[in-house]
Amino acid sequence: MNVKSETVANAKNAASSGGSEGRENLLGRSVPELEKLFHALGEKPYRGKQVGEWMYARGATAFDSMTNLPAALRAKLNEEFGIGVLRERSRRETPDRKTRKVGYEIPGGGIVESVYMSTPSRHTFCLSSQHGCAFACRFCATGRMGRGRNLTAAEIVEQAFRLRGELPPGRSEYNIVMMGMGEPLENYEAVVDALTLLSDPSGMAVPPKRITISTVGLAPQIVRLADQGLRFRLAVSLHAATDAQRSKLMPVNQRFPLEQLLRAIRHHVERTGRRVTFEYILLEELNDSVADAARLVRLVAQLPCKINLIPYNPIGPGKFKRPSPERIERFAEYLRPRVPAVTVRYSQGVEIGAACGQLAGETET
């Protein structure tokens, strides 16, 4: 299959990199923070609100476009500040452009990847929270990178800001899933700060019900999310229904085994009133039998939940294989009358390395 590939940022996206070396980044600051900044600069605080509206509501990538600011102030902002720090270094798109994977260079070096996905009814942005990942899930390309660094809240916000510029004319609604590179709950403060700004009506105004945080199962942070009253949706990477099996696939299970994880999830459901989504990657002859399905039912059927079955996406040489369509359907059919909701999610963008488990900053050398 032909795949469109670019290695140089296009003009639209290059603008928001800001060329801001040595300048302070304003993208990622809340409106109250911008108001305080402008007051400290000797300007009226409402100028900060105006700048926030231009960035978050209108998608402005340059101060010169902020025409309700005095020319002298726009010149000062151009000298001292920038809008964004990420530089687009790679782009791969499916021929129909419904899936687009963008690689951004982050300050200090390294590439993080974000994915734009579209269907006739919805648009979804898959954002990264870390450069690399320390949790080494056996089926995940990011886990092979090892630990990199946490992204800042501003770097997370900027990914959504940049992908929003890809929406077709007349479309403004989109979903955000924290399912890119890294473990979001290990970078807890930055992720929560970013999602708070993304969902703020004076920020990018994404309803919390359209935002999902995915985790490998960091039980204490799941409890913390619930206790803070955060209303974002929760998705948990489960992938096995016994501790022995899950520990082989996901070493994190040795720290937070299923009993502790399920206790945290029940607490989250009770506190938030939201159902949880369980992600379950189907691996041929490893976790895809009817017996595996029966164990999964016993584990989660009493919870208000949705199970997303994800046929394995290849990440290079290894022992894992995607099950046959017949095995996938048999597993799903066993679950459907026994758990609240089941979907089989064939990931978009497999052919460009943009699907679940495939992100790995592939442009790095």
From TrEMBL:
The keyword S-adenosyl-L-methionine applies. S-adenosyl-L-methionine binds at G182, E183, S214, S237, L238, H239, N313. The active site is at E113, C356. GO terms for molecular function: 4 iron, 4 sulfur cluster binding; metal ion binding; rRNA (adenine(2503)-C2-)-methyltransferase activity; rRNA binding; tRNA (adenine(37)-C2)-methyltransferase activity; tRNA binding. Its main location: cytoplasm. Signal peptide: none annotated. GO terms for biological process: rRNA base methylation; tRNA methylation. SUPFAM superfamilies: Radical SAM enzymes. Specifically methylates position 2 of adenine 2503 in 23S rRNA and position 2 of adenine 37 in tRNAs. This is Probable dual-specificity RNA methyltransferase RlmN. It comes from Eiseniibacteriota bacterium.
